[in-house]
Input
Amino acid sequence: MIRVLYWTELFWPHIGGIEIFSLQLISALQAQGYEFAVVTSHSNLNLPDQTEYNGVPICRFHFRTSLRESNLKHLAAVRQELAIFKQTFKPDLVHLHFSGPSPFFHLKTASAHTSPTLITVHSMLTDTPGNNSLLTQSLRSASWVNAISEKMLRYLRRQVPEISLCSSVIYNGLKMPSSQLEAVSFDPPYLLCLGRLINLKGFDLAIAAFSELRRRFPNSRLIIAGDGPARPDLERQSNALGLTDVVDFLGLVDPGNIPELMNKTTIVLVPSRPGDSFPLVAIQAAQMARPLVAARVGGLPELIMHRQTGLLIEEENIEELVEAVTFLLENPERAVRYGQAGRKQAQELFSLDKCVNAYDVLYRKLSGNLIS
Output
């Protein structure tokens, strides 16, 4: 049995793309005989230091608090606790998902227990990391680097050329929903933004575009599903534009209810800003055959084929967003065709089975258990 220390910035009960993906990946690999332990942070929730989820132990450390406060005594205590955990669990492999500052502690406890490290990079940086950045140090220390898109892989190889022979792409994948697929309804049109409510997601751009779309399609509605620090600003923006009664803020949506929400949706909007590398909502929408309008940032052009599975627009371009949505609402047959093509692509390229099989091979290779 291969023991994997699965390191991720946030984990359940936090809900986001990486968290949903992690739950599905771990469950599928458990079924293939892997043993997991999760290392993560508390973030801003009052969560126990140790618990479990579906039989997987979860160990939470005060990573963010100790880094934010720069308290040397606190930093040393966290390092010691983590070192003890590594020595106790004795992983055959560390799978580290790079999307925040916590890998600092992995680097500082590398000698506690020697094992290969696989790094999956989820976040595209908008500036050059530099030789001493956390990302650069982490990449150079890794046994293998996985990127979640071809664009990200090219970026990482440019920044740290020495990883070129020990890096690859594994697209994130999700399990196909079991929910029955309902036909796309255009009367009335429901537009959906789904994700963590942060500036990176560009939901403010969707609200601004919807103000114009309401003039063209008076019975349309906008749904914003998710929660986060940007919610008060988004609600104020909606109120200021006179959209209070036609923009619905649903708050957090249980992952199991997302297919039902997609079934009620006409078009899914992903107006992300640079840095939002691979929004899983695009896969979730495609799985439910919903047409997409998305910004041409990160890995989205690899997820969405322009004028085949959806429409791509330039970043921060509200006018293009309005025109793209207008085109789909005025051409429902084309919109339905895009959605159906997207569903087929999701089944072929972004399935959980394809993703799990790729990680299974990589896990075995790095831990010395590859069966030829």
User: Anything to note?
Assistant: The first helix runs from residue 17 to 30.
